[in-house]
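Sequence decides. Consider this:

===
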Amino acid sequence: MPSNDVRTLLHTAVPAVAAGAIATVVSGVVAGGEGAIGAVAGTLVVVLFMGIGLVVLQRTAKSMPQLFQAMGLMLYTAQLLVLFIFLSLLKGTTLFDFKAFSLTLLATTIVWVAAQARAYMKAKVLYVEPEKSGSTT
């Protein structure tokens, strides 16, 4: 993974994990141990889903740059649909507090998307490939 991609991943994952940690503490205080487990599970789901999506998007940008925008829109739509499906499947679970899980899932997703947008705005990515010096074509 190139350094720009790692930097983007770090600048998105760290705020999401921090938001998840805050949500875990709040959920632990409000809903007890089950709330904390639900918040941790929600954070892990978001970091895994969004992290995999970011890696896929970066690889697509490298191999097929003409599909980058369409792939990004499709990927975000698919991620949100999968998260909603995940929520509906776990709605009746007794493993953890579902309300803490779902609120943490929502909050960390919003933080991830905002941090990713900020990371892309701050990145200094060349949109024109410079010519190599000394080449005559």
The longest helix spans residues 33-63. The chain is about 80% helix and 0% strand.
